[in-house]
Amino acid sequence: MHVFITGGTGLIGSVVVAELLRSGHTVTGLARSDRSAAALEAAGADVLRGALGDVTTVRGGAERADGAVHLAFGNDFSSPEALARDIADESAAVAAIGDALVGTGKPFVSVSGTPAIPGRASLETDPLPTVGPVAGRSVTLTSMLGLADRGVRTSAVRLPRTVHADGAGGFAGLLTRFARESGVSGYPGDGTQRWPAVHARDAAVLFRLALESAPAGSSWHAVADEGDAVRDIAAVIGRRLQVPVQAVPPETYGTLGPIFAADQPSSSAYTRATLGWNPTHPSLLEDLELIRP
């Protein structure tokens, strides 16, 4: 299968590209910069130059492929306005890919986050949030999954807030960065809130499985660790960086504060049983032991 991918050079995207190529697929990746283009070429993928907001280019990449994987997102949380622009660019790109694949029966795998459900671990059947700073992404994904009724084999891989590799990545990576900058390994609230996690290489396998065999309109959870207490995460970071560990106000983390403070464990039992996904790489707490002072 020839696969068109957006976001193919990030922490997750780069290992998805490697997983697809290793499994015998070919890949064309969207590249906004010379650096991204060089990374895709070095990995063995073809390159389509353009930004996520270049909808004509994005649509063309999808039209020439046997399937598509969408992973790109600006991740600019510096202000509500910047985040809104990133969400708008993503929505336009996903719509362009979907339009290109209507009536073809080809697979289109997109990405979202696992939802937070009060009092229990979230399931693949739980709805995505319709309020909050990134709710616009849920609207985009819901529309994309609805293309199953128009001849597109859509599926969504829901990622936990921490996708990690080699001691870095995701929300835990942000806690590490804040700890380096402030000299304190902080956690919001009392730290008992739980964050799910997955190693990037395990997540990449699930993206491939969804592309190859997921039913139209389906959602899957790329969750290896159902939920680590945030204070346990902060404790490992503090020990590795040799800084004190303590509670800090959620406002410390700006627009991410309310999300950082939320309890959001998630289950992948259905995903594992149905698609045969079996995470094998280190857990988050094990991986954080690779942090260097």
UniProtKB/TrEMBL annotation:
Classification via InterPro entries: Epimerase_deHydtase, NAD(P)-bd_dom_sf, NAD(P)-dependent_oxidoreduct
Positions of the NAD-dependent epimerase/dehydratase domain: 3-215
GO MF, any single term: aldehyde dehydrogenase (NAD+) activity
Protein name (record): 3-beta hydroxysteroid dehydrogenase
Superkingdom: Bacteria
GO CC entries: cytoplasm
CDD domains per UniProt: SDR_a7 (cd05262)
